[in-house]
Amino acid sequence: MPKLKLGVIVGSNRKESINRKLALALAKLGNEAFEAKLIQIDDLPMYNQDQEQPVPAPVARFKADVEGSDALLFVTPEHSRSIPAVLKNAIDWGARPWGKTSWPNKPAAVTGTSGGVISTAVVQQHLRAVLGDQGLHLMGGEAYILFKPDLIGNDNTVSDNSVRDFLKSFIDKFAVFAGKLAAA
Q1: pTM for the whole thing?
Q2: 8 Å CB contact between 59 and 44
Q3: Domains along the chain with CATH numbers
Q4: What is the C-alpha separation between 160 and 143, in angstroms, rounded?
Q5: Within 13 Å, how many C-alpha atoms sit on residue 154's CB side?
Q6: Over the stretch 22-61, which tens digit does the pLDDT of each residue have?
Q7: What is the mean pLDDT of residues 136-143?
Q8: 3-state SS assignment for residue 147
Q9: In angstroms, rounded to a whole number, what is the distance separating the alpha carbons of residues 52 and 98?
Q10: d(CA 35, CA 7)
Q11: Whole-angstrom Cα distance, residue 27 to residue 171?
């Protein structure tokens, strides 16, 4: 079976984002099932309906990347107990212009990491509500990762065996979920 095209959307525009590190580690762990591509969101202008016709070039590129993906993986930090502005902005652009949404019927999974004890639990709950309303098919299950220094090496390898096993199980489960939807 050919690899599924996995669009990976990181909800952080920070250069040294720990969520980008997690996303790259997940892409590496899932490389047997997925051909992963990071979808850039940090250059999207703030959503403004006045800019919908025609959409700005970065938005057109973003929408094409989303539409060209067989499945989507959202890896995000939590900002002020909710969705980071850069990610919410991308979701809004993906849904517009009216009638030309890029989101429906895509299988999707949500995860994230932080240094806090409850990690990204609250943002994942909010994000699931927003993405479900956009028509994505969300994989069940939760994946909150407590980030520690040196958890992920420069080669995108997870150093902690139990965390690596958990993440491998998560991405394998998502591959099965996305594969079933792609076959249907």
Answers
A1: 0.97
A2: yes
A3: 4-183 (3.40.50.360)
A4: 15
A5: 0
A6: 999 999 999 999 999 999 999 999 999 999 999 999 999 9
A7: 93
A8: coil
A9: 9
A10: 9
A11: 8
**Residue 117 confidence (pLDDT) above 80:** no
| Count of C-beta atoms within a 10 Å radius of residue 149 | 7
DSSP per residue, 87-114: HHHHHHHHT-STT--S-TT-EEEEEEEE
Residue length of the chain: 184
In terms of Cα–Cα distance, which of 84, 154, 149, 71 is closest to 112?
A: 84
Give the Cα separation of 136 and 92 in Å (integer). 14
CB 106 within 8 A of CB 136: yes
Provide the residue type at 27 as one letter. A
Q: 57-67 and 85-94 helices cross at what angle (nearest 10)?
A: 80
Cα distance between residue 48 and residue 29, in whole Å: 37
First to last CA, the chain: 14
